[in-house]
Amino acid sequence: MKKVLILILTCFAFFACDDYLDVKPKSRIEASDLFSTVDGFQDALTGCYLNMTTPQTYGKDLSWKLLEFMGHTYSATSSSGTEYDLIQKFEWDNSIIRPIFEDIWLGQYNTIANVNKLLSALDENKSVISEEEYQMFKGEALAIRAYCYLDILRLFGHNTFKNQDNLQNLAAPFVEKYSKELTQQDTYENVYEILISDLDDAIEYLKYDSYYPFEIERDESYKVISNNVFWSGTSSFSRKMRFNYVAVCALKARALMWKGDVAEANTAAQFAIKAIEAAETNGFFQFSKNNSYLSKTDDLTNVGEILCGLHIQSLETYMENAYETHINGTWNPVELRISNDVINEIYDITGSGEGLSDVRAINQIIDHPSEDDFSYCIKLRTYDRDRDYLHYDNRVPLVRLAESYLIYAECQLLIGEKAEAIKTMNFLKEIKKIQPDFYLEDDLEIEKVDEAIIKEYRKEFIQEGQLWYLYKRRYLNKLPNSGVEFDPESTYVIPYPQSEIEIGKRK
Fold first, then answer.
1. Which of 109-113, 432-436, 481-485 has the lowest mean pLDDT?
2. Number of Cβ atoms within 10 Å of the Cβ of 369
3. How many domains does the chain have?
4. pTM of the shown model
5. Residue 491's domain is classified under what CATH number?
6. Domain assignment present for 152
7. Which residue in 402, 441, 392 sits closest to 418, CA to CA?
8. Does 348 map to a domain?
9. Which of 70, 151, 174, 283 stands 20 to 30 A from 471 (CA)?
10. Residue 266 belongs to some domain of the structure
11. How many angstroms separate the CA atoms of 255 and 271, rounded?
12. Beta strands 183-184 and 374-377, pairing class
């Protein structure tokens, strides 16, 4: 195994915000002080989530912007040779583009470093908190680390779903300790084993979660969790905006599917669905068909079906000019416009197509105000032009409940259970209020069912940064919105940062 340099902040900077811990004059709180109280642990965990909201990570590039341009969701207006023109041409080695991915790499590993510091402090200062709180902190921290590392694998790594031989290649290093020491690379096989073990541990720890959906006997000590708003949440900041029990079950299914372990992914997705449906019955989540707030003026993101997400206070700033054709009289090169041909192909809204009853097409797609050939997807837009505000704004989804159903449907198809795959797909159509006339027929060919699964991903995850990963996992040699063929192996693997290659000796 080779050693790889992990570029992390060597100073203890939890919050990607210079003054968050500036309680002591002109200095940050020492770690020993921070972890001397329950409040300090809560601040540290909150800081890990805040780290995930930067524009280099899930505030912009790993959600609605960069990855969506990579997947050709948007029709870029950039001039030849400019940033987003190069991105849509997959020129990852260009000197303009490389720093973008280096910042993502650093952002993800910075979050992981801060999580590792928290995990270490939990064991070193266990007497400060109750056993119930310890398990909740531990469960959420492990889930955050697994989520961030899995996205490093998905963006910078090789495809192990289509090519199991890649499991023996060296992967990006899985950093488990807060340390200045170099972390050795290990094989994809081994890092997936660690990652999935962490998720199993997180699921076990989170049985204290208020979002635990199954019947369980609680003793008096559970009040430490149930009576604490930090763990139980409020109407505005509920547990669905953090890694709760159900979300981690769904994340495990995602990780196993990416590894290419179809049998285990099928089992994990099946369990996640069981948890989702129990949680929906308990009122923790809400299928679209039961969501009275789902509209253009209330809930664009369909928050009822978000299992885990981020509340990003700066989202409006990050998305400034995203829906403007011109800026100061010149073309906006990063306007989030989508070709109507793409919209019609995804949602089928021409004539009497199924999109006319699909709540996503109805509420999240609007006409472009000045260009007849384009539309906008406004699911993350933080304001309404007529009302100036929206309920449930500033939310960026990380895990949606539909993903577990889609993974399950795909696994069922792969193991020869077409009927069950069709049944699952039709359930998804039902909860999106699509008319029964458009349900999949029982005798539909396997290839057509598979196409329906990919299209459902595109409907569900448009503007959330997930579609590039779908295309990569499925090893498509041309993107649905592009049509230009390319070599999957060279196109889907983003180069490591130059410092990792030169200093860390990564080959």
1. 481-485
2. 11
3. 1
4. 0.93
5. 1.25.40.390
6. yes
7. 441
8. no
9. 174
10. yes
11. 14
12. unpaired
